[in-house]
Write the structure tokens for this entry.
Amino acid sequence: MRYRNLGTHGPRVPAIGFGAMTLAPGVYEDVTERQATSALLEAVDSGQTLIDTADIYGADGYSERLIGRVLAGRRDAVVLATKFGGNTDESGRFIAGLGRPAQVRRAIEASLTRLGTDHVDLYYLHRLDPTTPIEDTVGAMAELVAAGTIRAIGLSEVSPATLRRAHAVHPVAALQTEYSLFSRGPEDELLDVCRELGVTFVAYSPLGRGLLGGSVRSVDDLPDDDWRRGNPRFVLGNIDSNVGLADRLASLAAEAGITPAQLALAWLLDRDTLPIPGSRRAEHVRANGAAADLAAALDPEILRRLTEAIPREAVAGAQADAQYLAAIDTGA
């Protein structure tokens, strides 16, 4: 496993982390506690020791609670990242007001209890609170850094302008945004701003929510209650086109002697990002972790051809529905 610093002065972390959203039942397909435990332990044992979760992953903070139990004796072996401020109401709309300083303090105390630890290594604001200036939210997070409750500050799905404002209050170590061969928006400006400020760019959903890894080839592959059935990229018509694009990835991966998921992750690593794939299956977790070393030996020509094979304008459907996208800070 290759390593890098988190932000300019942050801890040393693996080049590929582990996204723990998939550990919670009901997020994608149902997962048993035994399966989730096996996947989490495989992540740590295979070197994916940056564990990324959130207080909303699963009912009553299920993902955080599981991590706290499973890693109780291995806390020093991992870099724990969690998030706050991403709660939604019954209609699925993001709740305003969760970025207020008092809410920040309440949220971290609840997460620390569930995780069974006295500090979090990286603490993210999950979504920008439109009712609270980012300076106030980050100011409260900076107080947590000073107190030793958190080690570094992260933001998720914010615009370049918001990132600059936040970074002026306190250094931001990481910016997390959806980025993959199928979601290329960060290439417009955000990646450059992160490089300028020394902020690590963390790519979530690096495998296109299953499309790029080859696990989903039709709507019928999704359980009836899978939320992806409502995602524009998975609806009838769009999914057929997108699977065709994923087949181009698979063809190049076969030529390189690696899996499609490993090639998709190598493509992200080549762009100086830190992907955090998640999986319920230990064998997939192990294969994802191996992508860092495989990427180092990959012929750059394969990556160039891959970029040409899947142009960003060819992907069918928006990355999410209108309600979800409305909560993403675009700076407009």
Remarks:
- The chain has a mean pLDDT of 95.
- The domain at 3-326 is CATH 3.20.20.100 (TIM Barrel).
- The radius of gyration is 19 Å.
- The longest strand covers residues 79-84.
